[in-house]
Design goal:
CATH class: Alpha Beta
CATH superfamily: Ribonuclease H-like superfamily/Ribonuclease H
CATH topology: Nucleotidyltransferase, domain 5
Distance between the termini: 26 Å
Number of helices: 3
Strand content: 25-35%
Structural class: alpha/beta
Length: 134
């Protein structure tokens, strides 16, 4: 259940998506047939997890991911994402945007986005029991 008048996230907000469910045989990366895609926004205050927002989305295209940000994050906030193309252009909607391309980094996404990945792990554990989250 969601309180309709809840405040938007603000300050620094890490955003990433995760997949819940069993892996599709032979399907890699952001393509999925069976798994649910959940986009996660987490306020990060001095390295600590603040408020959290989650939403099931049908795909990882710009409309789905950017609509989530517009609805749950206060304009002017710093949105921190990976280099996925669907987040490009979020600055035109009133947000500051910091991009960390995890595919080219020596650090993995769990290290770069620890708050989002902790939430994703808790979500997955609550659904399936202890599992590995992408």
């Amino acid at each position: 259940m969601v309180r309709p008048d809840r405040d938007q996230l603000s300050g620094e907000v890490d955003v990433d998506e995760t997949y819940i469910g069993t892996e599709d045989p032979g399907v890699k990366g952001r393509k999925t047939i069976k798994r649910a895609i959940v986009v996660i926004g987490v306020e990060v205050n001095a390295g600590k997890i603040g408020r959290i927002r989650l939403r099931h989305v049908l795909d990882v295209e710009g409309t789905s991911l950017q609509d989530f940000i517009v609805e749950v994050v206060k304009p002017g906030s710093l949105v921190h994402t990976d280099g996925w193309r669907s987040y490009a252009g979020i600055t035109s909607k009133g947000f500051r945007h910091r991009v960390t391309v995890t595919g080219r980094s020596t650090e993995n996404a769990v290290t770069t986005f620890p708050a989002v990945h902790r939430v994703a792990a808790l979500l997955s554990d609550g659904y399936w029991g202890p599992t590995k989250v992408q």
